[in-house]
Amino acid sequence: MKATKVLLITAWVLALQFSNQVLAQTFSVKTCKVTVRGTSSMHEWESTVEKLEAKGSFVVTNNSLTDIQDVVLKIPVKAIKSTKGRMMDNKTYDAFNHEKNPNILFTLTGKTITQANTMNVSGKLTMAGITKEIDLILRYKVLPGGELQVSGSKKLNMTEYKMEPPTAMLGAIVVGEEVTVTFEIVLTQSTIVKAEN
Q1: What does the pLDDT read at residue 178?
Q2: Residues 6+ positions from 195 with CB-CB distance below 8 Å
Q3: What are the angstrom distances between the C-alpha of 152 and each of 57, 92, 120, 149, 168?
Q4: How far, in Å, CA of 114 to CA of 108, rounded?
Q5: How far apart are CA 45 and CA 37, in angstroms?
Q6: Residue 189 contacts residue 147 (beta carbons within 8 Å)
């Protein structure tokens, strides 16, 4: 009888320890579609991002996202390519002072996940060597196989990051200060790690 009681207590303690843990899937980027749109004194323009790196982890419970943590995104400045060609690319890289600031970085600092497949996140965005806090409203979808699709858009003002909007034709064409970044990223699970509740 005493041995049975000890076994029951041991099982109960183990169950409590297990209940305080969740399985967090570390992720990597499977696919990304990122566009940057803006205006100029002559025409609208668009650039695409050809490379994006991300690390972090997320928790999916009952096919719903319940947590996302330790997220860091990195975009090499030279991965930005304009539909207007190499001249526009070079002016973009100069605006970032890319030799000194080769990457755009986003670090997650806070999040609120709702039941409507959306999450409000905050983080630190670093561009051209300047870091600012930004807020984002993101849409997410858990895909078959456990992959996570995240999408959203954000308007940014280049001058807030001490960036001088590019010009062309001896200043006759001036790019507008504000750009809109639109993205859709699919994150795929890599290894499983245990995270305390």
Answers
A1: 85
A2: 21, 22, 23, 24, 57, 59, 67, 69
A3: 19, 23, 11, 10, 30
A4: 17
A5: 6
A6: yes
